[in-house]
Amino acid sequence: MSTPYSAKIIDGNALAAQTRATVAQRTAALQARGLTPGLAVLLVGDNPASQVYVRNKVKACTDAGLHSVLERYPSTLSEAELLQRIEGLNKDPAIHGILVQLPLPAHIDAHKVIEAISPAKDVDGFHVASAGALMVGQPGFWPCTPYGCMKMLESIGYDLRGKHAVVIGRSNIVGKPMALMLLQQNATVTLCHSATADLKAMTLQADVIVAAVGKRNVLTADMVKPGAVVIDVGMNRNDEGKLCGDVDFAGVRLVAGYITPVPGGVGPMTIAMLLVNTLEAAERDAAARGLT
Ligand code: NAP
């Protein structure tokens, strides 16, 4: 009888702490050259989950020595007012990154708002210019969640060349950019979604599986090839109200070679990569201003 695997855990908290420490060092070096990286976070309305996310993002910035401002607006804010504020931040030399927390109230067109952010300050990587840069392999800001997943693979020394990666979910902020990043690292990529005819047939062939769906137990042990690397992006609540991912962690960890937990996996890495993007935006600004 074959012995079940006991997957190694990829510890997102530990990797994020390391990443944030490096950001803090580079931030201090930049400050010595006269420039402090700055992030503006805009929250419209009072969505409780969004309030937690923005608080965590701002705190992570402050802890790493970055300047950050949280601007809260009532849900009655008009689209024109929000666009005007973004225009102001685009011109503000103290701000290197602009993040508009999604979702926005229904009367505001999120696409229009994201397109109003200067691509040079698009640290969420959601602007069409950033998406296009990723698509054609040019420098630009990568969306923080899939970028964090790539860093998790890098942290275990995983060589994607020639491997089969299966991404479940095709959103513009996770699934699609994830597939492009894996492709850029020479994986053969399959992108699955709600109309995929036989998901299990796809995942069973995968060396790497990234689950980004938003539904519990989308990936169970019988769907995973022994030794595969499983990255769980999902954020859901279980019957007890506790945070859980898309992956049946208890079952899949007995089959997979590596697995990311929820909580303590992709979530902390998403915030860490936001800091990295903001720092890099500031470093580019420093280079453009000739601050050496
Ligand atoms: P989304 O926009 O709702 O996209 C979900 C994707 O899953 C869609 O492409 C959908 O397919 C696909 N899907 C739905 N049911 C499926 C099924 N049964 N089988 C296969 N595919 C299915 O969600 P998202 O924004 O990408 O987020 C996905 C999850 O990641 C959510 O739980 C979210 O909370 C979490 N998340 C976590 C972080 C983090 O920092 N940890 C960051 C971002 C997102 P269709 O396109 O066909 O509808």
Notes on the protein architecture:
With 292 residues, the protein is of the alpha/beta class. It has two domains: 86 residues, Leucine Dehydrogenase, chain A, domain 1 (Rossmann fold), CATH 3.40.50; 125 residues, Rossmann fold (3-Layer(aba) Sandwich), CATH 3.40.50.720. It has ten helices and eleven strands. The strands form three sheets. The chain has a six-stranded parallel sheet. Strands 3-2-4 form a three-stranded parallel sheet, sandwiched between helices. The chain has a two-stranded antiparallel ribbon with strand order 9-10. Helix 1 packs parallel to helix 10 and helix 6 packs across helix 10. The longest helix has 23 residues. The model has no long low-confidence stretch (mean pLDDT 97). It binds NADP nicotinamide-adenine-dinucleotide phosphate (NAP). NADP nicotinamide-adenine-dinucleotide phosphate (NAP) binds next to helix 10.
Task: Please render the helix and strand layout as text.
Blueprint: E1 8-9, H1 12-32, E2 38-44, H2 48-63, E3 67-73, H3 79-91, E4 97-100, H4 110-116, H5 128-136, H6 144-155, E5 164-168, H7 175-184, E6 188-192, H8 199-203, E7 208-211, E8 229-232, E9 236-237, E10 243-244, H9 249-252, E11 258-259, H10 266-288
Parallel strand pairs: 1-11, 2-3, 2-4, 5-6, 5-7, 7-8, 8-11
Antiparallel strand pairs: 9-10
Helix pairs in contact: 1-10, 2-10, 6-7, 6-10
The tally of strands reads 11
Total domains: 2
CATH topology of the largest domain: Rossmann fold
Overall geometry: globular
Q: Quote the beta fraction.
A: 15-25%
Q: Identify the bound ligands.
A: NADP nicotinamide-adenine-dinucleotide phosphate
Arithmetic mean pLDDT: 97
CATH superfamily of the largest domain: NAD(P)-binding Rossmann-like Domain
